[in-house]
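Researcher: Please generate the 3D structure of the following complex. Treat every line as part of one assembly.
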Amino acid sequence: MRDTLSSGYEPNHVEERWRKHWEEDASFTPDPASPGEGYAIVIPPPNVTGALHIGHALNLTLIDVLCRHARQKGKNVLWIPGTDHAGIATQNVVERALAREGKTRHELGREAFIERVWQWREEYGHRILDQIRSLGCSVDWTRLRFTMDEGLSKAVRKVFVSLYNDGLIYKGDYIINWCSRCHTALADDEVEHEDEAGHLWRIRYHIDQSDEELVVATTRPETIPGDTAVCVHPEDTRYQHLIGKQAIVPILGRKVPIIADSYVDREFGTGALKVTPCHDPNDWMLGKRHDLAFIQVIDENGIMKEESGSYHGLTKEACRNKIIEDIAAQGDLVGEEKLQHAVGHCYRCHTVVEPHVSTQWFVKTTALAKEARDAVPDKTRILPESWRKTYYHWLDTIRDWCISRQIWWGHRIPAWTCADCGKLVVAEQDPTVCPSCGSTHLQQDEDVLDTWFSSSLWPFSTMGWPEKTPELAKYYPTAVLVTGFDIIFFWVARMMMMAQHCMHEVPFKDVYLHALVRDAQGRKMSKSTGNVIDPIVMIEKYGCDALRFTLTAFAAMGRDIRLSEDRIEGYRHFVNKLWNAARFSMMNIGETAPKPFDLGAATGLHNIWILHALEEVKKDVDQALEEYRFNDAAQSCYKFLWGSVCDWYLELVKPDMQKEGAPKNQAQFVLWTVLREILVLLHPIMPFVTAEIWDALPVCEGFEHYELAKAPYPPSRPSCVRPKEAAQMDFLQQVIVAVRTIKAELSISPGKKVRLLLQPADDEQVQLLEDNRELILTVARLEALEIDPGAKAPKASASAVVLGCQIVVPLKGTVDLAGELARLDKQLAKLEKNLIAVNKHLADENFLSRAQPEVVEREQRLSTELLDNKEKLTAMRARFAQALAEDAE
RNA sequence: GGGCAGUUAGCUCAGUUGGUAGAGCAUCGCCUUCACACGGCGGGGGUCGUAGGUUCAAGUCCUGUACUGCCCACCA
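Model: Done. Output below.
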């Protein structure tokens, strides 16, 4: 046990000790052979290059809440941590570092460069792991994984070969998205479309051997040298007669056919389209369909090729300006207008993406996508459900997945070409001879795989697949995938596809897609906007628990989180409140633990009431977390601890603590129980402060001591569910509040002890109030308390009515008599308003005959009660007014 | 062009199966009451975007509509 707690919670002193303890103790390293239902979550692997941002913090907090809660519920929990090699992103970072030394990766050569990246990872890759650690994540560090680990690389190769052998991976020429800065192909979803202001130029194409002409509209005149056709709609009467003739490409003078295809939108532009099969995906499709020539005029660096004639060597941007100039000079520029249109950008470096024809590797997605689709929602639920449609839609319209990347950092494609016979060899093990001709001149494919290829195997590759491991047997499929919706396609859908192929089973039973964390204005956080909230800074400033509680409390399903620093600061108060409630408890419990007794037999309304409330929170929190309602779980704890325990129970229990014997011991043990169990409930959300308090709490006789991270969820105590007593307590609270209100509104100092006369409505109230006389005296701060239904109230007194019980505070000696009249009028007006509303219901025939009987009954009861209150209050007002008048005389 | 969210107190958001609107922060008043001023007590503040519909009863269900945000999409 630790010494007394300090008066303010200081997270920095506490947290590091627990991080260390959890790690050294291997607290979160489960044994697959141990009992308990397997419950696994794999971390969405952050990039090794990365630093923890607030989105990670949210993601990791929610996962940790689930894992810690599942442990409490007796599950055998495995949370696998790890990082992603993040091909393009990491290569970019290292290349930038090289550039600062004045070197390029090409100067270094492939092998040395890769060596350099590994070095870089050794040096900086632990940063993100440290940050995961500082968040308090209960991950199993002994099972740390990296997508380029030997085991995972083996899995990658196995899947590649298997897909290839099944005919689901092929190599082919296709128009892909090319980033000329990253110098690699990108998958469709790695391209971000953004509306940009551009121009739509109308350019005249002359018709061969004719005076006629055709005007086409284009946003990309630099591709004109690559034109191999002009296309119109087959039913367009304006152009029908030109179909089959030849158009002359401006400047270059090449003749190209005029073709017809219903793809063309007659309404847009001029209704005539120039076709550049090598530099536009639609034109590529047209080119294939109409068997057109394919002329590439822009190279992989964005420079005009020789085929572009006089524009050879220009950048594509320069070419655009020049060619427009030239066409204008020739008099063939017919028009120029501004146009907003979508332009694709590289999701890694934001360079404009160029459609580019090249040889790439693809995964056939049709069959895989169907299986992934069919698994939802029966085998895998997607939450919130609104994302289900999006998921379906993507899979329904999916195109083959381009998986080759022209970079060096990543899993190199396990394909070799025989230099002698040209045979393509795809194999798990590096081949030494060509199986076809026996040659040893085998050349491995230069490309590496898309990062998402290896990530898509993550749920099972991290558990040791393709080996048959105890982890796979116990923990697969994983319980839930928790991630942001921004990677639903990149990652979630692809894991679903790959798992079906490799495991013939879904990778997870639930997918919980959480929100994006935005700034207070709802903007995305970004370094350039300067609105980022750095979780590490927040942890240092306010403590990890405050950050975690804030994120949890804001994690309502299906809604973005608008975060600002003052919210975190606000919840730090809550952490401190818990700390001080614990301090108070321990001061009153003392060194020696109280003697346990049967809580179901507790006496004292306040004890019975708080135990009842405790049962409710336990139920609520458990239910909320089962349904991923994180915010509800956090709110329940917050309300109970602050609103019930601190605001009331701690005050109510003070008199008991001054006594000796049974009442004191009872209060102590109840307090001990309440504190102990709320610590367990809060622990998944705020692991540090709860563990620290738990550690300082004495252990009662007959109770086992274990550390909080290993504590079970508190079992329900049915004998403590006491709704009747809870309602009685509610009545007492209302009485006390009424007295406080009178004091506050009549400017009677809260500290000033007043006399109170209660005129209960019935014997039951008399009994209840008598039984709790002491409690009322203390909490309402009274000098004297008279409970007497027949008592004669002094005329000059302030009054209120609660459930028919009249509350009278004599005002003799106080100043503000006139204030009371105004106060009563306000109360009466409020009552009257309510009464009218209720009576309107009761006067309605339809309501009486059609509403549920309970509802009608409730309304009737309410009406009677309100009327009674009104009458009593009116009478008191009259008496008081009289007193005022007499006083004036 | 298609799809999905959101619109509730000054701000940020809750509001499970329809039954007289809640929290935190902010604001106002009072209080250094021996756990906590990162505190206590009390007050003020909302015709729940808008128009209809269903219902005895709608913030809650349905339809239309406005605005905001996001995602998807091959109109050059």
